[in-house]
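Whiteboard transcription, Tuesday session. T.W. wrote the structure tokens on the left side:
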């Protein structure tokens, strides 16, 4: 072993960082390197001068990972906080910042083509891949079994190696399928590195196992012994560009340089603090390492550190290590040949009568064998046997020229059997088959006519020809040997045939001809009852010496490869049968020997089954998925994962019980896993065993909470505990019941239920338990499913009807089953209503006669104010027409008294779905559609009967708009209680007012009208004729005052307006006063109404004279003159007091033009909004046969300027208008003088705008 070179002084130090240097990488330009540190910065250095070329900030935490793309164009760095910053390799400019993990980034690596960045972290058991164009995550993460410490692409880019705390995992980078996974170190796997040719992978361990281990990337077996020397955690590994050296940095303050050929330390570089990172320069002449000393040290690679000789202790060591071509010099020891060492078979002593070299050949250590035989040749140049034997070794190494030269030297010294055999083998290797045949023929002359030797010689010829691709000739000769030689060793022939068949199979297997390979392996097994033990190896050892055959495992190889071929051919069932046949045929010792293969095969066999099962499961082909997963289970190697997937497939088929059993098996195999319980929850839920399902879900949550793996515990965050689900459902219930009546009849039980009883019924229902068992994730809380289930359960049917003499009241049904009551009068109506609701699929019903506690003022208040909302949100409103007989003809509905009642107005316009039932509870007109509001015939009939246009009947919107129109619709309706004429309209206008039964009806109506004006400023409700209200003189005493539609006044055409405007423009004074008037009116607020007092903005005209006029009709009429107005005639309800002959007074009067801001012709956006509800609460109504309801006109002309608008307003104010006659009271307020006719006034002269200038707000009592 070479002496270890201790080095303490670096060539150069790079100083500047303010913290430990954790990562270092070099650029392909050979000039620069980049480092990352605890000081949260990156620095790019000039490696020759040691100057910092650029310092880069941006990380919020210490830099933990760093990589430069292979073309040097990108730098990616990760931090403790989980963020990655990507920078331009030349400028250092930040290109992207992505949040890739929640905790420290442990490792980064670019793919070979630089299109993918792989990231690993300590926060989870996964590796994420990022597209370097979009910086979006590419596909799903690669999930591992433990925290990820290192990720690195292979030199070819085909593989991705991941070092986790538990295993080394290898993935195909294209398919992301796991190639293999193995336990590398006793503790954590801290780092890894690929050799440049990709044939070896080095891994390092932590303080529990501070070694480096070398792995063959074909077999994934460990090569040689662990590399020892470090005494603490190995933080990083780097491999020399030539692949001959490796460097490692450790917490033991040492950086070691290793030689890959003999895995020995050749130099140790000492740090003052822990060594954290290491890399080679691009040319391989220097090593760069950094660590806790805040410095990057540059070290020279010691001269003469190319692979040196090592002493081989045994030939078997070389064989185990797979070192078939090493050029290491052998120890200078005297190894002599023992020509007398032979076994009982004569042909052995004739062919290879050697000891140490023979053993080396058997063990596969051909270099040792070559060196030993070379020593023999050097010691005795005339030893023909040594030349022949060395020729065999060179043939094994496929060095055919040397093999032929040695064979010729042997024959030239002395012709012999071994000489000609070696010549024949060498010629076959060179492809000179005819010459080889001649050599074998000559060799037969030196067998001494020994049939055993001759037979064995022909077998060697068969094998040599086979190796020269002369398959047909080799098979024919073998067949002749087997059948034509009575004294032939048939067992040897069968072994050779089997071996050749195995070779055919292996070649076919390598060429992906899997079916053909399976046939060959089957033929090999059928050719002979091959023993499973290794005695054939000893018996036919010469075949091993000459050709390197592994006869020990021939039987196992044939069986195993047949299983593999069948598996790769997709014949999974045949593969499983072959596997079972093999396992049933071997003894326990062989079983132990093959345990690793058994495990690998079952994993390989399970893998495609699982893959196909997964594909079938993803495609919802549950039957095929069940068959495939069941096949894996039949291998007796199924894990809890397989049972879980099989359960999932069965659950997809709704095989709840079978799925439950598989899920239960999964929990038995892995009691700590949550997956089995999750599937049990699904199975039990599907089987409607909801209570058990909820318990299984609770156990699942406890498994997540108790999991030792952080990633699994993180899954818990997406789930909610049942109590959270209960709270969410309860909130949905309260929201739903907010729009439902306080008391409801349960149509299934016949019982009247208050809120608590309704909720209790829901919580004990199957719907609730099902919903609770389905609400498992936070996302479920946000979904509409909870709302939908709750809404469906509490769907309610409301009844609209005309009260009759006997009705079912609250005390009649409280705590009773209405189905069992004596069905007379109102009870019969109630029972029929509930039956219709129940038969229609509704659980809850409501009827106003018995579902309100009218003795409770609070409940009564809420019920009256909520009635419209209840009907609006009802799933169905049934209208019962007790006065419409069965089989009625069209028109019967229009004649029903139901149309005349006050409460039925809102009971029809509020609901979205309505059905009309006749006296016998049959559908009106036998219309069996789901919604009679969609029936044009019925809607036309109601439109004619009520005077309400069909559109409003269908899609009525509560609120203040068109208040005068709504009051007209209600003016002809009657109520039993006088106050109800106002209370029944609360919902129509969307107001919420106190309910005070016993108050005067004028007061009730006055409060409603006052609220309308107060909230909307709409003065159209003041447009009425008749008797004034005691509440306020500007309001009517009775709603019937609105029966007469507002009078339509004449108006100018647009041309006439423009003509008048042009005339006014000629009068500068008129223009000035018009502008001033416009400003004053624009700044005048709308009417306000409170405490029975109306504050009315208006233009006042002083009354100068009022004269009594007598009329033959006996009506009281007055001739009224006012400043600026044309004389007019007023007909009053009662005589004006001061003109009574008995009580003359000097009371002052004014005629007022109530100010309506719409005259400004400004855009009005209130029509785009609803006063009380959202647009989402409405639906598009069906077409109606009548859709000519009045609409508010929209001014489409353009107004040029303020002056034009002012003049336009003046012209409009000059048109006839509805005026109020007001009488001044002693306190300065006014009262309206009610009239029997509309008071229509008009200014004398539009040009006299000054007469309109008395704009004020008058308080009216």
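and on the right, the sequence the group agreed on:
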């Amino acid at each position: 072993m070479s002496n270890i070179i201790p080095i303490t002084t670096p060539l150069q130090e790079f100083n500047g960082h303010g913290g430990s240097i954790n990562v270092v990488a070099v650029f392909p330009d050979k000039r620069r390197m980049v480092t990352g540190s605890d000081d949260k910065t990156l620095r790019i250095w000039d490696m020759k001068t040691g100057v910092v070329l650029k310092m880069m900030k941006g990380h919020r935490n210490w830099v933990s990972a760093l990589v430069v793309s292979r073309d040097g164009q990108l730098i990616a760095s990760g931090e403790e906080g989980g963020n990655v910053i990507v920078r331009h390799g030349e400028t250092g400019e930040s290109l992207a910042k992505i949040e890739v993990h929640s905790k420290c980034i442990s490792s980064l690596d670019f793919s070979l083509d630089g299109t993918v960045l792989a990231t690993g972290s300590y926060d989870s058991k996964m590796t994420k891949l990022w597209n370097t164009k979009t910086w979006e995550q590419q596909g799903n993460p690669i999930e591992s079994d433990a925290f990820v410490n290192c990720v690195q692409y292979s030199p070819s880019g085909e593989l991705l190696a991941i070092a986790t705390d538990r295993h080394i995992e290898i993935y195909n980078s294209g398919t992301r399928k796991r190639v293999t996974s193995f336990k590398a170190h006793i503790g954590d796997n801290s780092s890894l590195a690929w050799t440049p040719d990709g044939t070896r992978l080095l891994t390092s361990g932590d303080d529990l196992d501070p070694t480096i281990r070398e792995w063959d990337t074909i077999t994934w077996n460990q090569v040689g012994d662990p590399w020892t020397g470090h005494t603490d955690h190995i933080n990083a590994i780097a491999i020399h560009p030539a692949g001959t050296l490796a460097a490692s940095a450790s917490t033991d303050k040492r950086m070691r340089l290793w030689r890959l050929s003999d895995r020995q330390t050749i130099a140790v570089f000492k740090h003052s603090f822990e060594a954290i990172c290491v890399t080679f320069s691009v040319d391989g002449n220097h090593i760069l390492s950094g660590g806790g000393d805040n410095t990057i040290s540059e070290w020279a690679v010691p001269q003469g550190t190319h692979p040196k000789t090592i002493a081989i202790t045994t030939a078997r060591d070389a064989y185990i290590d797979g070192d078939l071509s090493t050029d290491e010099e052998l120890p200078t020891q005297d190894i002599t040949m023992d020509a007398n060492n032979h076994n009982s078979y004569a042909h052995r002593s004739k062919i290879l009568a050697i000891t140490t070299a023979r053993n080396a050949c058997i063990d596969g250590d051909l270099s040792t064998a070559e060196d030993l035989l070379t020593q023999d040749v050097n010691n005795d140049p005339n030893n023909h046997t040594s030349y022949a034997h060395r020729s065999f070794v060179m043939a094994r190494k496929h060095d055919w020229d040397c093999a032929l030269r040695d064979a010729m030297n042997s024959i030239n010294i002395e012709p012999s059997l071994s000489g000609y055999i070696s010549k024949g083998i060498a010629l076959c290797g060179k492809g000179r088959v005819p010459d080889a045949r001649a050599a074998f023929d000559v060799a037969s002359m030196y067998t001494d006519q020994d049939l055993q030797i001759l037979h064995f010689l022909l077998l060697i010829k068969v094998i040599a020809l086979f190796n020269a691709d002369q398959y047909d000739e080799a098979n024919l000769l073998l067949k002749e040997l087997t059948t034509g030689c009575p004294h032939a060793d048939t067992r040897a022939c069968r072994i050779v045939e089997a071996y050749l068949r195995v070779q055919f199979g292996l070649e076919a297997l390598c060429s992906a001809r899997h079916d053909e390979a399976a046939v060959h392996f089957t033929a090999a097994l059928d050719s002979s009852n091959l023993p499973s033990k290794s005695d054939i190896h000893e018996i036919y050892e010469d075949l091993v010496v000459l050709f390197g055959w592994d006869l020990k495992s021939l039987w196992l190889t044939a069986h195993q490869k047949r299983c593999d071929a069948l598996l790769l051919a997709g014949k999974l069932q045949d593969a499983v049968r072959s596997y079972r046949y093999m396992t049933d045929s071997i003894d326990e010792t062989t079983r132990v020997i093959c345990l690793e293969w058994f495990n690998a095969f079952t994993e390989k066999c399970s893998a495609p089954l699982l893959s196909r099962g997964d594909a079938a499961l993803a495609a919802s082909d549950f039957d095929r998925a069940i068959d495939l997963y069941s096949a894996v289970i039949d291998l007796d190697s199924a894990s809890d994962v397989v049972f879980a997937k099989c359960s999932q497939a069965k659950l997809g088929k709704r095989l709840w019980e079978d799925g439950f059993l598989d899920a239960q098996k999964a929990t038995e195999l892995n009691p700590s896993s949550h997956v089995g319980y999750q599937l049990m929850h699904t199975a039990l839920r599907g089987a409607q065993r909801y209570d058990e399902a909820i318990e299984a879900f609770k156990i699942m949550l406890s498994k997540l909470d108790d999991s030792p793996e952080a990633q699994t515990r993180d899954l818990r965050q997406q789930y909610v505990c049942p109590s959270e689900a209960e709270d969410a459902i309860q909130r949905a219930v309260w929201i739903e019941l907010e729009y439902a009546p306080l008391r409801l009849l349960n149509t299934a039980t016949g019982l009247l239920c208050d809120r608590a009883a309704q909720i209790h019924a829901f919580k004990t229902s199957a719907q609730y338990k099902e919903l609770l068992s389905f609400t498992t994730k936070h996302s479920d809380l946000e979904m509409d499913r909870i709302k939908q289930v709750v809404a469906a359960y509490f769907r309610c049917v409301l009844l609209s009807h005309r009260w009759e003499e006997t009705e079912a009241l609250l005390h009649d049904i409280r705590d009773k089953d209405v189905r069992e009551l004596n069905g007379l009068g109102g009870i019969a109506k109630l029972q029929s209503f509930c039956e219709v609701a129940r038969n229609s699929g509704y659980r809850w019903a409501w009827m106003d006669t018995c579902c309100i506690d009218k003795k409770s003022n609070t409940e009564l208040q809420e019920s009256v104010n909520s009635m419209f909302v209840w009907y609006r949100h009802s799933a169905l409103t049934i209208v019962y027409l007790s006065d419409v007989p069965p089989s009625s003809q069209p028109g019967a509905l229009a004649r029903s008294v139901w149309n005349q009642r006050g409460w039925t107005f809102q009971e029809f316009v509020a609901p979205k779905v309505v059905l009309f039932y006749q006296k016998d509870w049959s559908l009106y007109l036998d219309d069996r559609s789901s919604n009679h509001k969609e029936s044009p015939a019925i809607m036309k009939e109601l439109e004619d009967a009520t005077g309400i246009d069909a559109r409003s009947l269908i899609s009525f919107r509560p609120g203040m708009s068109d208040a005068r129109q709504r009051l007209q619709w209600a003016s002809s309706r009657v109520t039993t209680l006088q106050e109800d004429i106002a209370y029944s309209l609360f919902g129509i206008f969307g107001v919420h007012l106190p309910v005070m039964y016993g108050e005067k009806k004028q007061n009730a109506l006055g409060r409603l009208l006052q609220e309308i004006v107060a909230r909307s400023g709409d003065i159209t409700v003041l447009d009425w004729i008749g008797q004034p209200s005691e509440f306020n003189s500007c309001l009517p005493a009775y709603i019937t005052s609105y029966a007469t539609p507002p009078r339509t006044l004449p108006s100018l055409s647009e041309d006439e307006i423009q003509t008048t405007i042009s005339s006014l423009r000629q009068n500068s004074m008129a223009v000035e006063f018009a502008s001033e008037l416009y400003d004053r009116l624009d700044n005048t607020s709308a009417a306000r109404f409170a405490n029975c007092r109306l504050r009315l903005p208006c233009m006042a005209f002083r009354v100068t004279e009022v004269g009594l006029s007598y009329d033959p009709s006996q009506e009281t009429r007055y001739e009224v003159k006012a400043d600026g107005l044309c004389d007019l005639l007023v007909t009053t309800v009662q005589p004006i007091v001061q003109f009574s002959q008995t009580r003359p007074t000097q009371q002052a009067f004014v005629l007022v033009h109530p100010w309506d801001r719409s005259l400004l012709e400004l855009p009005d956006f209130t029509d785009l909004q609803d006063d009380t509800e959202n647009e989402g609460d409405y639906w598009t109504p069906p077409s109606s046969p009548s859709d000519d309801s009045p609409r508010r006109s929209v001014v489409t002309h353009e107004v040029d300027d303020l002056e034009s608008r002012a003049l336009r307003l003046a012209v409009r104010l000059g048109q006839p208008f509805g005026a109020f006659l007001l009488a001044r009271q002693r306190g300065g307020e006014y009262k309206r003088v009610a009239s029997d006719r509309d008071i229509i006034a008009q200014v004398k002269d539009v040009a006299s705008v000054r007469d309109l200038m008395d704009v004020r707000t008058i308080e009216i009592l």
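Someone added at the bottom: The radius of gyration is 51 Å.
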